[in-house]
Each structure stands twice: as C-alpha cells, then as structure tokens.
Design a protein that fits this description.
Blueprint (H helix, E strand, L loop, with lengths): L1 H4 L3 H15 L3 H5 L3 H4 L3 H8 L9 E3 L5 H4 L8 E6 L6 H7 L5 E7 L3 H9 L10 E5 L21 E5 L6 H5 L8 E7 L7 H8 L7 E6 L19 E2 L5 E6 L1 H8 L2 E2 L5 E6 L8 H8 L2 H4 L3 E6 L3 E8 L2 E8 L3 H15 L8 E6 L10 H11 L7 E4 L4 H9 L13 E4 L7 H15 L5 E4 L2 H4 L1
Helix pairs in contact: 10-11, 11-12, 14-15, 15-16, 16-17
Length: 456
C-alpha cells in the first residue's frame, strides 16, 4: 500500500480507469465496481468522487435494490434502472425513477399492465439525462399517453419497446432528432398503430438513426386500403441508416419505402404476414435506387416449417425477404409472387440456390407446382448456376420439361448442381428433354453434384 500511495493522482486515475473499464461487463457488480476503490482509503475515495465522468461512475437500481434506503448514501450519480419485472414489485423501481434528473438508462422487461400503469404515473415528467429506454411486455397493456417523459426526450439515443401501445411515439422521438441512433419498435399491438405517413415524417427528422426495427403484432395493422395515400413529391433521405427490420403487411411497407431513401443500407430484413397479394412494385423501386442493395450476384430461396424466404447476400450486406406461412403450396405461390414483384429488373443474380429446410417430408409434385416453380424462376434472367436441394430437384426438373422450345425462363443457365445427384435417379430422367433442347439451341447445360460444404 505504501508503494502505490506515493503515486501521483493522474497515475492513480489511469489505474482506476483501467480497473473500472475492465469490470464494465454489465450487471450490478460490473457497473458498481468502482465502489471497491472508495473503501480503500480517504485519498482514493476523494479522488474517485472528484472524477465521476472520467471513471463513468453510475449506480445500478433493480427491482431488488432498496433504492429509498441506499441512494442517499452516495453522491447524486447517474442511475441505471434495470430489471426483470415478471415476478417483482415496483416500489424500488419507482423510488429510483422518482430521481428523474439522474436516470440515464431504463431497461424493464416482463411488465404487467398494473406495473406499467404505476411506472407511467412517475414518468410524466422530463428525464433530461435519459439516453436509453427499453420497455417490454407480452401482456395487453394500457396505451402510453402523450405526456410520457413530459413529451420530450432530448438526449435519447436508444429506444426499444416490445408489445407496448404508444401511438404518440413519433411526437416524443422527434424531440430526440439529433441523438437517436437505434429505434426498435416490436410486436406493436393494433392499439399502438403508427401510420406509415407518421413514421416517414418521424424518420425524416432522425438524421443520426442507424438501426430501425418496425414490427407489428398482426395483419390488422395495415393502412386503409379504401383510401390509399399518394406518394409524396419528395422523399426523405436517412443518411446514417444501415439496418432495417420490418414485419407487417405489404401495403404498409409499400407506403413507407416510397417516402424514404437510404443510401447507406447494409442490412434489410423484411417479414410479411401471410396474405393473398404480395405485389410490391414500390419495394422493387426502393431496392433499385439504393446502391448497396442493387447489385446482387447470388440469391437463396429457402423453405422451412414456418416461413419461406429470399436472401440476397453481398459481403457484409444482406437483403432478406420472408413470408410467414406453414403451407408448402402457399409458400411457393407467395414467394413466386414476391420474387416477380420485388426484385429489381433486370436481375443481376447469377447463382440461385433453392433450399429445402423442412423438418419432415412435406412436398409432392403436381401440375400446379410445376407452374409455380416456373413463375418463381422467371425473374432470374441472369442466373448461370442453379443449385437445388435433393428434395426439390425432381419436381423442378419436371417443371423445366415444360420449357422445351421456350427461352424466357433461365435464358442464361449454364450449370445445374443437385444435392445428392444420382445419374439414374428421377431428376436425371425428368431433366433430359430440357437439357437436350438447350443443347440444340447452342446453350449447353452441365449437370453436377452440389456439395453444400464447399458452396455455402
């Protein structure tokens, strides 16, 4: 102790900084690791409390923290209010939230309707230091009023809600326009519906927004189809957005993307509810005018027990469009619609993978499926290499037999790779006429084994 005690204050602070930073792994013990320093001696205690910003001094408050009894023994440091509320009372959390000028982070999960009502009662005032807010519930909850946070959150950087009805959210978040970086609004109930026009107007103010998740609870949350709105004369540019997740109706996304441009997009993940019509021409236009989404040389069409999807990766950038459905025939019909209406024309995809990921054998070949397979393949005019899972290969081969003398489908095809390819199997029998016809038209096609381990 004597040796370290002779160190000057600036050196001690470097050591303290290194120690605190190394402990900052989250949770109470990491966030409050600095407290062990103040108990060593008076000099250390004074030095720590003279450097609250340098050492990022904070206090952790959970539903189990006796906030009324413990907060007063420390200086007025920033408060982090975190906790799982499902089996907890709200008294300690409310005691911490009453220190509204000090609270900088709120993460509360598993809220019940009664708990949210009690918490909302103390959150009708400004929280001027609040940077992170997450509220999460799987219950039916009361609608959050416009007076939440006093109607203003000027320093908010990250907002997350799950299952929370808050139709006035755009008004609140517009006050954080200069700082908001991440916006995750998930499992939105219909009582919390935010129109695409209101959402686009909000996004136009969020110049620093990098990540956006907008996910509705059901197909009920969709724009009024009887009076569709006209596209605006000018689109809003979101310069920093590089991640976008959407789950909802096609009509909502069509309305939204016609109002925004996103030049920096890296990842976009779209999930549509199961519906009849998947016509998305405005989405195709949006993809076409977004440089990072436009040029894609490979596509993966995947079918599994709960959804079907089209993924178009390109390095670290990925575009994924999915449809929630459990019926194989409807999955094929839906994804065929989506590929024909949402992909930019002409397609730049040269490698197309059609992958079977069901947990059981569910597919049967019939004439209707043949037509749907051809419809699915139609937009992929630049494909040179077609990769087929073994369960799909015979049915697709049967569909391709219908193309003898027709070159509009897969006109650039050069190779077909089949998982578990057998030279004498049903696929080889069905594909013969198609390959022979392309050979006669000077467009030879080679059939090979698809080794997933080397290609994926």
């Amino acid at each position: 102790m004597k040796r370290i005690d002779v160190l000057p204050d600036d050196v001690l602070l470097e050591i303290f900084d290194f120690y605190v930073d190394g402990q900052s792994y989250g949770g109470k013990s990491g966030i409050e690791a600095w407290q062990s320093l103040v108990h060593v001696c008076r000099r250390w205690r004074n030095l720590v409390f003279r450097s609250p910003r340098r050492l990022n001094l904070q206090l952790y408050c959970s539903p189990e923290t006796p906030a009324k009894d413990t907060l007063g023994i420390w200086p007025a440091l920033p408060l982090l209010v975190w906790g799982e509320m499902a089996s907890s009372g709200v008294d300690n959390v409310i005691a911490a939230l009453e220190q509204s000028n000090r609270v900088c982070q709120i993460y509360l999960w598993g809220l019940t309707g009664q708990q949210l009502e009690e918490i909302l009662a103390v959150m009708q005032v400004p929280f001027p230091e609040l940077t992170d807010l997450e509220l999460d519930s799987n219950e039916t909850l009361p609608v959050i009023p416009d007076s939440f946070l006093g109607g203003s959150a000027p320093r908010l950087r990250n907002f997350t809600s799950f299952g929370i009805p808050f139709p006035g959210l755009p008004k609140l978040l517009s006050s954080a326009a200069d700082h908001l970086v991440e916006l995750w609004i998930r499992n939105i109930p219909h009582s919390g519906y935010i129109s695409p026009e209101a959402m686009a107007a909000l996004l136009s103010t969020l110049s620093s927004l990098e990540k956006l998740s907008l996910e509705f609870q059901s197909l009920q949350s969709r724009p009024d189809l009887e009076s569709p709105s006209l596209p605006p004369p000018n689109r809003s540019i979101l310069p920093a957005l590089d991640w976008f997740e959407f789950k909802g109706a096609t009509e909502y996304l069509e309305n939204l993307v016609t109002r925004i441009d996103t030049p920096q997009f890296v990842n976009i993940q779209i999930t549509f509810f199961n519906q009849i019509d998947f016509d998305c021409p405005r989405l195709a236009q949006f993809i076409s005018r977004t440089p990072t989404l436009r040029a894609r040389d490979n596509a993966h069409v995947k079918f599994d027990d709960s959804e079907t999807s089209v993924a178009l990766p390109a390095g670290v950038s990925t575009l994924v469009m999915s449809i929630s459905s459990r019926e194989p025939d409807w999955q094929l019909s839906s994804v065929a619609q989506l590929c024909n209406s949402s992909l930019p024309r002409p397609s730049t995809v040269e490698d197309l993978y059609i992958e079977y990921q069901y947990s059981r054998l569910v597919w049967k070949d019939d004439a209707i499926e043949n037509v749907l397979w051809l419809e699915l393949l139609l937009p992929f005019t630049a494909v040179k290499n077609l990769y087929l899972s073994k369960q799909f290969a015979p049915g697709i081969a049967t569909a391709l037999k219908e193309l003898v003398g027709i070159t509009e489908v897969l006109p650039s095809l050069q190779n077909i790779f089949v998982e578990g390819f057998e030279p004498s199997g049903p696929f080889q029998k069905n594909i013969g006429d198609f390959v022979a016809a392309r050979q006669l038209s000077d467009h030879p096609i080679a059939i090979s084994v698809w080794d997933k381990n080397s290609n994926m």
